[in-house]
Amino acid sequence: MRKPMTQQEHGGWIRVNPHDYDQPHEIGMADVEVNVFISPFEIPRGVRGFYDEARKRFMIEFKYITREPREVDDGGPPEIKTLIGRKTGRILGFEIDVVALHASSVSLRLGAIDQALEAVRSRSSLPRRENSRIASKVLHDRSEELFSAMASI
Q1: How confident is the model at residue 131 (pLDDT cuts 50, 70, 90)?
Q2: Which of 31, 55, 127, 131 is deepest in the core (most CB within 10 A)?
Q3: Nearest CA to 114 among 136, 146, 130?
Q4: Predicted TM-score (pTM) above 0.70
């Protein structure tokens, strides 16, 4: 059995085409519909998933045009820590305790991640809600590739 890759060994970014996610999003407010366009800084350019042997956690990270320091949001399920940008509030990734989560399928893992995203979204401004919506869509679109690293744990 192959040993899981550590964060230092893993570089496998999955490219995200920003044009797939920059479609206007309609929101309705009191009989008024507004099209919201997302800043290119809010759309991930890449995503990766890997097992971090040192932390004993499955990590999901998003890559954006710019980098920034991260902080942890513990508002979701206790087995998942959401990593958010300290300055922008963007979703930068997740740290998942797969043992505590007793995850047996990708859909279960995504359900728990969606709970964590909803916790962040409920406390966020409109741009942050849109960023978390796009992060969720990228995760669902790329789930098979992201969680393929789980097979070796």
Answers
A1: confident
A2: 131
A3: 136
A4: yes
Residue showing tokens 């990766």:
48
45, 15 Cβ separation under 8 angstroms: yes
Residue closest to 52 by CA, chosen among 4, 116, 2: 4
Amino acid identity at 138: V
Closest CA to 83 of 5, 10, 11, 7: 7
Strand, helix or coil for residue 119: helix
pLDDT digits (tens, 9 = 90+) for 12-44: 899 999 888 877 656 556 677 766 667 888 899
Q: In angstroms, rounded to a whole number, what is the distance separating the alpha carbons of residues 53 and 119?
A: 27
63-96 pLDDT, tens digit each: 999 999 999 998 888 889 999 999 989 999 999 8
**Would you give the DSSP letter of residue 13?**
P
DSSP per residue, 25-71: EEEEETTEEEEEPPPGGGS-SEEEEEEETTTTEEEEEEE-SS---EE
**100 in helix, strand or coil?**
helix
